[in-house]
Amino acid sequence: MEILTVKNLSFRYAMNEAPTLKDLSFSVSEGEWVVICGATGSGKSTLLRLLKRELAPVGEMQGEILFDGRPLESLPVRRSAQEIGYVMQQPEQQIVTDKVWHELAFGPENMGVPSGEIRRRVAEMASYFGMEELFLRDTGSLSGGQKQLLNLASVMVTGPSVLLLDEPTAQLDPIAAADFIATLDKLRRELSLTIVLIEHRLEEVLPLCDRLLVLENGSLLTYAPPKQAVAALAGREALLLSMPCAVRLYHELPPSSETGEPPLDIREGRAFLRENYRNGTASLPEETKRAEKEKALSFDHVCFRYEKSGKDILSDLSFHVSQGECFCILGGNGAGKSTALSVAAGLLKPYGGTVRLFGKKWKAYASEAPYGRELAYLPQDVTVAFSRNTVREELVGFGVATEAFPYDLTPLLDRHPYDLSGGERQLTALAMVTAKNPRVILLDEPTKGLDAHAKAAVIGVLRALRDRGAAVVCVTHDVEFAAELADRVALFFRGELISTDTPRRFFSGNRFYTTPVSRMTRGFFGNAVTVDDAVRLCLANGRREGAR
Amino acid sequence: MERFNPIVVFMYFALTSGIAMLCMNPIMQTIALVGAALLFLIRRAGRRGGHLPMLAFALLACVINPIFSHNGATVLFFVNGNPFTLEAVIYGAVCGVMLLAMLYWFRSFSALMTSDKILYLLGRISPKIALTVSMALRYVPLFSAQMRKTAQAQRAMGAIRADDSLSRIRGGARVFSVTLTWALENGIVTADAMEARGYGEGRRTSFAIYRFHRRDAALTAVILLLGGGIYYGVFGGFAAYQYYPIVTVRQDTAALLTYGAYALLTALPSTIEAGEIIRWKYLQSKI
Fold first, then answer.
1. Tell me, what's the pLDDT at A483?
2. Which of A26, A183, A506, A546 could cross-link with A501 by S-S, CB 3.0 to 4.6 Å?
């Protein structure tokens, strides 16, 4: 049964000339999971908001949206709020009240459900989502992943039959994101819930979903089961960037009539390689070690804790980063990676050990001297980097020479920093902090919430800064980003750095904490960690004789 | 006491401290202080210390009253030609006792009535105000955290120099204004999220996690019975008293009944708390 039907939908924002959506037609059956993908500005969010009447943007709409066979706008107010649930990207901003139990009750309260009934539903939700422990907590004290699960639970409490989600995992770390996706899968299987999800991290979602809807400049490029949809993407570099590594590998290798359907996940990717390629040359040559340059930043047995009676967050942390080097620190949530970065930036003072910038102790600097010229630090949430009304004012304030920056910022100049997309914000902030050519750049999760395209741009900018001789230190969850960018990678665990190595050795040595490509090629190739690596090895080995 | 419905708890404190404020009878005031102190000690509400400043405050009242009030028949001595009377001292002391009792009641009250319980009471009166307060309780810490983070980031970017006061003032103003913008932006998203979940489409109900159990009804009955008796006693003149010219307090049967009822009322929460403690000890020894 079709629960959502879109017929010849076009939409133009009131202040825009060009339409944002052009003549879209598709339908979603009950219990289906549809994933919408497309580049930034392709109209994904506009489409999703149009499906939720309360959030529909202001503008000129043509065509029809049917919910359960009747036009969406003819649906009674209460039914519309109740039947179509909507979850947004920022976990923090959707939470309304100060207590978890009150947040769960908020929806039913609005619909005038009697108290006894709310009590039952709230209890049911808290049990189903495993939130009993959190029930009495302040919403502000939850982690990002818990907040997003709470948002999902408090939408589910009114019993919707369709769930719309706009990049719900973009702000979560990989483990919380996987949890969230698993919960969605459970809802779909157990309640036959219809899900429409916008996502740019498709590695986990694509193998689970029923259909992929690809938007390109507001038009429907394809709407089909994932295998067929993916096959239709050949040659579209920008869209392929966000696909799972197995799909990217499939498309980057020379096409052949015999290779069959594209693989979607790790398992299928392995089978695809085994069936089609030889592995006589299993490994890529190790890159030759660079000559050691001057140490830019060094930690020497640094210890730090927040409270005297607390536990050590950093214990005997020692490492160094040289000039012209990219150093990525990986590690679990709450492990203290961000704390280490704040200590490096001089914002927190260690109680033991020394931190040196170019061989000079932090303490020896006059308190503010290094900021700007010697050292730049960007926190995880880059919105805090902005304090003026337009990008132009920000850039002038910091004295940025736009021409010198390895990314073209001119289209953004007259916009408010808060109106930029995540990637544009990150790049603008990068331009600001690097204006005075700092010799050490510290970045906390620079790829959080970015789509594949923006991520590639950030990698480009950071590489250019490194090649100018800056030392770039990133703390990140994003293993693929680290594998592509870093010269050396380290694992942060229990307050210290364990196993520091080149990305190729680091990731091919790890079995779990590694890139999808490394997991996919394990045992077949020796040290492929990025899609590029795998492609190079495949081409070097050639196709298997008599491959299907 | 935590297990009772906040409405009952609130009613208890309002009634008990209301009587103490209306009736300056020295015996009633002493009873109130004993009850309040007992509850506070049993619960060890908040931190352990903090008695001394309260005691000092009460003593001060004791001394200050006779300096300004010269009524009373029993003159102890003269200060600058003004009489210093025993009655004025006693009145001051009772005032001190009242203050002390109020402070103890209030400390127990604030430990018992957490913000969400107060919000629950507010929700009974006006669900709209309760929701607004709940949202404010969430937003205020969020706002200050964002402002702190922004200030720190600006410093680490070299945009604010902590060693230059002019830059600090200018930067501080900029940080404040941008945080306001941030709050407005945030507010828009939150408003969207509220609307998506059906806010403002009709009559709201107000849900609370507290229920009204049998024990709440029982406690309410006891409180109302005792409280009614005491109010009858106080307004009926059975607990009459005077301080000037000489201190007299009614001590006949009717008066004693009123005092007794008040003693029972003030001892009620401590008895409940003590009962709980004993029950747990007993259970533990059986296990």
1. 94
2. A506
Q: Closest residue of B to A384, CA-based? A: B150
Q: What angle do CA A259, A207, A505 make, to 5 degrees?
A: 75
- Asked if B192 and A102 come within 8 Å (Cβ–Cβ), the reply is no
Q: Is B100 exposed, middle or buried (0-12, 13-18, 19+ CB in 10 A)?
A: buried
Q: What is the pLDDT of residue A39?
A: 86
Q: Do A384 and B193 touch (CB under 8 A)?
A: no
Among all residues of chain B, which has the CA nearest to that of A431? B157
Place of tokens 């219990």: A31
Tokens matching residue B85: 């009377």
Say if the ipTM goes beyond 0.90.
Answer: no
How many CB atoms neighbour CB B223 within 10 A?
17
> Which pLDDT value is given to residue A336?
86
Question: pTM for this one?
Answer: 0.86
Residues composing chain A: 548
Sequence letter at residue A381 = D
The pLDDT of residue A258 is 66
Q: Is the pLDDT of residue A173 over 90?
A: no
Cα→Cα distances A351→A307, A308, B162, B188, Å? 11, 10, 22, 43
How many C-beta neighbours within 10 Å does residue A95 have? Answer: 24
User: Among A209-213, A288-292, A375-379, A508-512, which is the least confidently predicted range?
Assistant: A288-292
Q: Does domain A295-501 have CATH number 3.20.20.30?
A: no
Pick the CATH number of A2-234 from 3.30.470.20, 3.40.50.300, 2.40.110.10, 3.40.50.720: 3.40.50.300
Q: Is A94 on the interface with B (CB under 8 A)?
A: yes
What average pLDDT score do residues A116-123 get? 94
User: What is the spatial distance between Cα B284 and Cα B117, in angstroms, rounded to a whole number?
Assistant: 30
Which A residues 287-346 touch B at CB under 8 Å? 345-346
> What would the pLDDT profile of A298-347 be if each residue is shown by its tens digit?
999 999 999 888 888 999 999 999 999 999 999 887 778 999 999 998 88
| Cα–Cα dist B42/B46, whole Å | 11
**What is the rounded CA–CA span in Å between residue A177 and residue A165?**
13
* Record: contact B197-A371, CB cut-off 8 A: no
Nearest chain A Cα distance for residue B122, angstroms: 14
Closest residue of chain B to A342, computed from CA coordinates: B156
Q: How far is B212 from chain A (nearest CA, A)?
A: 12
A203-259: per-residue pLDDT in tens?
999 999 999 999 999 999 999 999 999 988 888 888 898 899 999 999 998 887 666
